[in-house]
Amino acid sequence: SGKTSLVHLLVDGEPLRQPKRTVGCSVAVKLIDFPELNSAGEVVKTHPHFVELWDIGTHTQYADLRHIFYNQINGVILVHDLTASSSARNLHKWAHEVVQHGTFQAPAGSAVWGTTSPMPGEEGSGTLGLPVPAL
Question: pTM for the full model?
Answer without folding.
Answer: 0.66
